[in-house]
Amino acid sequence: MSDFPPPGDFSGTYPGTFSVTYDVVYSETRNRLTNAFRMILIIPHLILANVWRSFAQVLGLLQWFTVLFSGKRNNGIWSLQNDFMGYATRVSSYGSLLFDSYPPFGLDPGATGVTYHLDYQESANRLTNALRLIWAIPAMVVTIALAIAGACVTLVSWFGILFTGRQSRGMFDFLVKVNRYSTRANAYLMLMTDTYPVYE
């Protein structure tokens, strides 16, 4: 019996699979000044994140060949990708107005309140990795839809913080879920896990 999920299966419950955990500590009272200029303050991080992302994607291609021929992930490649993912989650969270502390550049999480974790699994399914770009199409469609909704909620949240100094818990929770799904989709697309991304 095959151990890989069909492309439309979103359960993430197949044996031997791992899923990304991601969360952010909620703070109702927010800094109006840093949020007002958030899109300017984040620019250096966006530049670094995009350069780092390109490198992580090249590593994903190398991992694709590794899995295809050996059925196993290379731990060194995976670890370099995982370092990027940790940084990328803090950048995206900062851009989504989920915390106010300026995130450090690099691997140090600082006082961001962002939690990211993904366990390494050496064994990998050759078939789902070989067809990953096809398998990931539904997840990418969901990611794009959530990104559009997330951008709208972020804008509303920005005005709320600007005028009240507070962030709605409902909007915060939704943006956390959007970032969590996006992070899981990126990890899946870069062959870091065989677990299909789930929105929760």
Give a verbal description of the structure:
The chain has one domain (21-189). It has a two-stranded antiparallel ribbon with strand order 1-2. It is elongated. The chain has helices spanning 32-36, 38-41, 43-70, 75-95, 126-130, 132-135, 137-164, 169-189; strands at 21-24, 114-117. The protein contains eight helices and two strands, in the order βααααβαααα. It is mainly α and 200 residues long. α7 runs antiparallel to α8.
Summarize the structure.
The protein is built from 8 helices and 2 strands; from the N terminus they run E-H-H-H-H-E-H-H-H-H. With 200 residues, the chain is mainly alpha-helical.
Radius of gyration: 17 Å
Structural class: mainly alpha
* Total of domains: 1
Strand order of the largest sheet: 1-2
- H-E string: EHHHHEHHHH
Q: How far do the termini sit from each other? A: 29 Å
Provide mean pLDDT, rounded: 90
- Let me know the largest β-sheet: 2 strands, antiparallel
Strand content: under 5%
Q: What is the β-strand count?
A: 2
Count of separate DSSP helical elements: 8
- Tell me the helix content: 55-70%
Poorly predicted sequence stretches spanning 5 or more consecutive residues: 1-17
Please tell me what the overall shape is: elongated
Furnish the topology, listing elements before pairings.
Elements (H helix, E strand, L loop, with lengths): L20 E4 L7 H5 L1 H4 L1 H28 L4 H21 L18 E4 L8 H5 L1 H4 L1 H28 L4 H21 L11
Antiparallel strand pairs: 1-2
Helix pairs in contact: 3-4, 4-8, 7-8
